[in-house]
Design goal:
globular, Arp2/3 complex 21 kDa subunit ARPC3
């Protein structure tokens, strides 16, 4: 899902760079006001886990690549803004050190995976979870949201490639969304598994105020 340099036209990546810069700046501000000592090690552990999970890539015809995202997991455990920052750091490190995703299009990758993955993902999760009061509702909501956000993020990549005339939408969208619909099931299972473990071992981490 990481877009390399040269795959987006200037108007697309410049716009997404601007959106990402503003949103990440807001996330820094929000997180700095609510940052708690217990969040710091969790942010580091999650960043390492998501980094490792995203390094497993699957080639996608007509697009870039498919892989796990992890944004919803970060958002549920840390909140939408801290989750966005964790995802952003992972994406930046991957681009700078491993050339996984371009530098000029960094904003596009941050938008697709960090902002949509964590920020939008968290509020989708909250909306789905609203009718549920039990732990079962938490797990169901996390599963649905994790799958849905992976499909949304991959579809946005296809749309951006099509807008830039890199590949036809009729080719990119089925390829990206189709592969990630399957990947999303795996990500949803992993997300629910980790949340279940955290809730049993460290339930206090689930009480972090997520604003």
């Amino acid at each position: 899902m990481h877009i390399p340099d040269g795959f987006l036209d200037p108007k697309t990546w410049i716009t997404l760079d601007a959106v990402a810069t503003g949103t990440v700046g807001l996330s820094v501000y929000k997180t700095s006001r609510k940052l708690r000592e217990r969040m710091i090690p969790l942010m580091g552990v999650l960043a390492a886990f998501i980094f490792a999970a995203q390094m497993l890539n699957f080639p996608v015809a007509g697009g870039t690549s498919g892989h796990f995202v992890g944004g919803v997991l970060a958002a549920i455990l840390l909140g939408p803004f801290a989750g966005t920052l964790v995802m952003t750091v992972v994406i930046i490190v991957q681009a700078l050190l491993f050339q996984d995703g371009g530098i000029a299009v960094l904003g596009a990758n941050v938008f697709n995976m960090a902002i949509v993955g964590s920020l939008l993902g968290y509020y989708i999760f909250r909306a789905i979870k609203m009718p549920f009061k039990s732990d079962k509702g938490l797990y169901i909501s996390a599963f649905i949201t994790s799958w849905l956000v992976v499909v949304i993020s991959s579809s946005l990549v296809a749309i951006q490639l099509a807008i830039s005339k890199t590949v036809a939408l009729a080719v990119a969208l089925p390829a990206m969304a189709g592969v990630h619909a399957l990947i999303g099931i795996g990500e949803a299972l992993i997300t629910v598994g980790i949340i279940t473990l955290v809730k049993k071992v460290r339930p206090d981490l689930m009480s972090i105020e997520k604003v």
